[in-house]
């Protein structure tokens, strides 16, 4: 009665038993792959690892950016400050002496807030020497900093000469009535006060934060206001050198290098005493 099901099972089983001995139904044996050479193994391993994204190449090193900041900051100060002197002459005194003093102070403050976090915002060879002698700048960076400052200042004077002409000797600084002794003393004192303010507001950790640019800019503006008619209130060898070079007026140029550097060094000696050998500045 159930035989058809038995015959069907036997037929199916016969087919299975007969096919498993057929050569065509047997899978071909898989031979093992030959081992890879060491060079191919390393290449395969390198391809299997995820590719790391290469960081973009930097156009300037951190030190190069410092020098560029010094160049640009000094350029801005000379371009705006001595440019104000020249425009005041061209406009028959429209800016006024107090206006020139304000421009000098304002551009110094602006450049400090713009570049202090990059290069410490020296913009002045006398300030650079003061930073070095106080231990806040490596000796190997003194000359490159000064070269960058001088180049920035000269570039500003060149652009002013091309655009405005040889007006007011491009804002050169000269002693009143050729009294170089008077100007030497005054420039020394002016730079001494400036560097003292820089140390007290910009380097001393105990000073209120965020006000260094304002304090330094106000100092430059005030000193230019009350001593500008006597000495030119340079306080900065690069600021005096660039108009002298481009206009080729070298009268008493040495004064505007020696006096600011001397005043800056006196400020270092004084603030070293005030700050316990500069240890208070670094704590």
In CATH, the architecture is Up-down Bundle
Large-scale geometry: globular
Mean pLDDT: 86
Q: Helical percent range?
A: 55-70%
Number of domains: 1
Any overview of this molecule?
This protein is an all-alpha fold and 283 residues long. The protein has one domain (63-282): Glycerol uptake facilitator protein (Up-down Bundle). It is 68% helix and 0% strand. It contains eleven helices and no strands. α3 (62-90) runs antiparallel to α4 (96-119). Mean pLDDT is 86; it is low at 1-25.
Core attributes:
11 helices, 283 residues, disordered N terminus, Glycerol uptake facilitator protein, mainly alpha
Write the layout of secondary structure elements.
Blueprint: H1 3-19, H2 38-48, H3 62-90, H4 96-119, H5 125-133, H6 142-164, H7 180-203, H8 212-231, H9 237-247, H10 255-274, H11 279-282
Helix pairs in contact: 3-4, 3-6, 3-9, 4-8, 5-6, 5-10, 6-9, 7-8, 7-10, 9-10
């Amino acid at each position: 009665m159930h035989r058809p099901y038995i015959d069907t099972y036997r037929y199916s089983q016969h087919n299975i038993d007969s096919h498993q001995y057929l050569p065509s139904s047997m899978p071909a044996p898989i031979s093992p792959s030959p081992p890879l050479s060491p060079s191919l193994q390393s290449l395969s391993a390198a391809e299997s690892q995820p590719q790391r994204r290469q960081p973009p190449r930097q156009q300037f090193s951190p030190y190069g950016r410092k020098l560029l900041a010094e160049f640009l900051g000094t350029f801005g100060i000379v371009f705006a400050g001595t440019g104000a002197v020249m425009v005041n002459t061209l406009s028959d005194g429209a800016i006024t002496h107090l206006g020139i003093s304000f421009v000098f102070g304002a551009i110094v403050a602006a450049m400090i807030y713009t570049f202090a976090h990059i290069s410490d915002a020296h913009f002045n060879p006398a300030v650079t020497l003061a930073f070095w002698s106080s231990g806040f700048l490596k000796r190997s960076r003194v000359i490159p900093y000064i070269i960058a400052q001088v180049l920035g200042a000269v570039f500003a004077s060149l652009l002013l000469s091309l655009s405005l002409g040889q007006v007011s000797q491009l804002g050169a600084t000269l002693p009143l009535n050729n009294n170089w002794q008077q100007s030497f003393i005054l420039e020394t004192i002016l730079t001494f006060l400036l560097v003292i303010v820089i140390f007290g507001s910009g380097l001393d950790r105990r000073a209120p934060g965020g006000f260094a640019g304002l304090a330094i800019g106000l100092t430059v503006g005030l000193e230019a206001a009350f001593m500008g008619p006597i000495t030119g209130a340079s306080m900065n060898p690069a600021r005096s050198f660039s108009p002298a070079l481009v206009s080729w007026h070298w009268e008493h140029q040495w004064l505007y290098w020696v006096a600011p550097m001397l005043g800056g060094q006196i400020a270092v000696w004084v603030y070293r005493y005030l700050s316990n050998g500069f240890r208070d500045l670094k704590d």
